[in-house]
Amino acid sequence: KDQERERVSSKYHSHKRTNNSMEREAASSFLVPTSLLRLLDPSIKTIFLTGCGGGFDFVHSMLIYPELKRLGKKIIIGSYSFGQAERIKEATTTWEKDLPATNESSSRKIIAKLVTASSVAPKNYCPEVMMCSFLDTEYKESAPHSLYAYNARDFSVPLLTELYTLIFQQHSVDAVVCFDGGSDSLMKGDENGLGDPIEDCVTLTTLAGIPNLKYKMLFVVGLGSDRFMGVSDAATLRAVAELTELGAFLGSISIEPNQIGSQFYQRCVNKIYSGQTFRSVLTGMIISSIEGKYGRDLVPSGTGGRVARGGAYVWPLMAVMWTFEVEKMMERSWISKWIKEARTVREADHLFEQGRKGLRDNNLIREEEEIPTFGEMCFIKSS
Questions:
Q1: Smallest Cα–Cα separation from 158: which of 202, 199, 192?
Q2: Alpha-carbon gap, residue 278 to 148, rounded angstroms
C-alpha cells in the first residue's frame, strides 16, 4: 500500500492538471484511503460506475460522482437495476441476447438500452431516466447525459461478462467502481443469513474475471441495513475483518452532511422521486444516517410509508463508504465459486442452493452471530 501511495502521489504531482498545493498534499497524505488514491491516479481516464445488486445500488454512486468530475474523469454509468429495460421507450438498444427455451422456461430476449432524459419509462419505477435528467441540470456543459439500463435479474456471469466486455471496449474503460447498498455483497456463503447475494455476486464475479482493468473496487454504503434481510451485523463486521486480513480492504470514507457529494446524492434522490412512485427504504436509512438520525424510534425519511416506527434501526455506520478490492473478495467467496459457470439465472440459483445444502449437510453453516451487548461485557468484566 505504501508503494502504491508513492506511485500515485508521484504521478499526481507531475500531472499537468495539478496546480493546487492542497490537492498535492492530499495525494501524499497517509490519511487518504487507498480507494481514493486509486481514483486520483491520472492514468485512470474513464471509470465505469454501476450498481452491484439491483435496486437503487447505482444511485448510491452519485456520492462520488462530483469528485470524479472534479478530477476530470470520463464517467460511464450502468444501472444493473430492477427496472425492465424493455419497458423504457425512446432509448437505443445497445445489446441483446436471445435465450433459448429450457425445460423450466420459454425462450426470451434480454436487452440493455442506452437511456437519456428524453426516454420514457413507467411512472412507478424510472430511476435511470430521472438520473439523466438530473445530471443534465447539474452539468449543463456535458449534457445530454446517458446511462446503460439493464435488469439485474436477467444476468448470469457469462451473460454479464459479454455485456460488460462490449461496454468497456467501446468506452476504453480503465477502472470500475460498483456500489452496494447494504452489506450482503460481503457474505462468503457460510453465514446463517445471506440476504439476497446472488445478483451482487454475479457482478463481482464478472468483474473479477474481466482482464485489462486497472482497478476494480466495491463501495459498500448503508452497512447494517441488510439486518432486515437476515444478515447479522456481527457477520458483516466479521466479513470486514476477514477481508482486511486478506488485504482486500481499501479504507473507509465518512459521508458528512454538508459534503458536496452528500448533498449531490440527496438532490439526485429527490429528483428521481419527483418522477416515480417507488421509494427505497435503504436509501431512506442512508440519508437519515447522514443527517445524524439514530435508533429505532424514527421513520427514515423518504420511505413512502413502507416503514413503520420501530421497523428500522439507523446508526452512524450507514453513513460510511467501506471500500474493497473485488478480485481478492472473490478469492474468499464460496458463492462466487458456486455460480461462476452458471449459464442462466435459474441455473445460478440452483447451484447456489446446492452449495448451501453441501454446507448444511456438513454442519458448516454458522450459528446466528450477535454482537456482544453492553450488559454481557460488563458482566464479564465484573466477574
A1: 202
A2: 20
- Distances in Å between the Cα of 286 and the Cα atoms of 22, 184, 282 are 30, 16, 6
DSSP 216-241: EEEEEESTTGGGGGT--HHHHHHHHH
d(CA 221, CA 317): 8
One pLDDT digit (tens) per residue for the chain, 383 residues: 656 656 555 554 454 444 566 666 666 788 899 999 999 999 999 999 999 987 899 999 999 999 999 999 999 999 998 888 999 999 999 999 998 777 666 778 999 999 999 999 999 999 999 999 999 999 999 999 999 999 999 999 999 999 999 999 999 999 999 999 999 999 999 999 999 899 999 999 999 999 999 999 999 999 999 887 889 999 999 999 999 999 999 999 999 999 999 999 999 999 999 999 999 989 999 999 999 999 988 777 777 677 777 778 899 999 999 999 999 999 999 999 999 999 999 999 999 999 999 999 999 999 999 998 888 888 665 55
Phi, psi dihedrals of residue 239, rounded to the nearest 5°: -60, -45
Give the largest CA-CA distance in the chain: 69
Residues 105, 107: Cα–Cα separation, whole Å: 7
Helix, strand, coil content of the chain in percent (nearest 5): 45, 15, 35
The pTM score is 0.91
CA distance 354 to 331: 19
CA dist 257 and 197 (Å) reads 30
Strand order through the sheet with 46-51: 92-99, 108-116, 146-149, 74-78, 46-51, 175-181, 215-221, 320-325, 249-254
Residue holding cell 454501476?
50
